[in-house]
């Protein structure tokens, strides 16, 4: 597991991770807005698991925007002991034949799935390369946990591989834990609610109590009030971390983080929607927002999946950290939005 920041709070989520692992469900998806502590939480949990379970094998793969489906598939094989060159050559089920031999060649995902499944269900072969020091009398079964981080970077081009890995995880000792800024679409709701293949853990901001506990550890003669910090930041861990570092709830680094990681990548036609929600004093029905922002169809899935917009019973609401950022933009346009929205909701 990667080295990460100190974990603050997250005891409920830590328990959920343990419950998923002990339930033996094949896959878990941890999702949440940029910087909310997904990798930090998972790494903290993984390190605790590794210490207590000698038969657990962990593979961690951080996805970059330039990663390819074939590159990820090949890296997984290498980490499972599959090699094609020299004295280390080892491929008893000929899984490497599923990979293209030259640039532009076809990746046979189905062959990859079938042969990797065969390899992972062969205990003798696994003992040679994966479970060399297996403890026979362990109370827990031997698992291989594949952690794929930043899956949002590769899902569009790697959905077939991700789907194959989900099937493999259902039939072998391999289990997958996927970390993403967005909701993932390579599986459907039946995999979650009917088939029991996938469990989801959406990560929100820290609670007021967790923020207060963190602030109590600040080396400051006059620490800020937890309720105010939570109101401004939405309990976003990075914001509280910057507060601890610089002593300013709305420090420039936090605002720059919001600009670079979120606001700058949102399509222009969605920014008006966010600006309207920023001046709202209560949740707003989608029909009203869509009319004022000139949008059609359903609420933007990318904004909802990132946790920037939250769907409540009374309508849509904006992530508090995003609200604070947008409300710093003053001027006639913001005043006009307040009046327009108030009239539409009256």
Protein architecture, described:
- By secondary structure, this protein is α/β, with parallel strands linked by helices.
- It folds into three domains: 11-202, P-loop containing nucleotide triphosphate hydrolases (Rossmann fold); 222-262, no CATH class; 268-345, Arc Repressor Mutant, subunit A (Orthogonal Bundle), CATH 1.10.10.
- The chain has helices at 11-23, 38-52, 69-79, 109-120, 123-129, 155-171, 189-193, 208-215, 226-233, 237-246, 252-261, 268-278, 286-293, 301-305, 320-327, 332-345; strands spanning 27-31, 56-62, 143-149, 174-180, 198-202, 309-312, 315-318.
- The strands form two sheets. It has a five-stranded parallel sheet, with helices on both faces.
- Strand 3, helix 6 (155-171) and strand 4 form a beta-alpha-beta unit.
- The longest helix has 17 residues, at 155-171.
- The protein is globular, with a radius of gyration of 23 Å.
- The N and C termini lie far apart (53 Å).
- The relative contact order is 0.12.
- The model has no long low-confidence stretch (mean pLDDT 88).
Mean pLDDT: 88
Measure the end-to-end span: 53 Å
Query: In CATH, what is the homologous superfamily of the largest domain?
Result: P-loop containing nucleotide triphosphate hydrolases
Instruction: Return Rg in Å.
Output: 23 Å
CATH topology value of the largest domain: Rossmann fold
CATH C-level class of the largest domain is Alpha Beta
Largest β-sheet summary: 5 strands, parallel
Order of H and E elements: HEHEHHHEHEHEHHHHHHHEEHH
Strand order of the largest sheet: 2-3-4-1-5
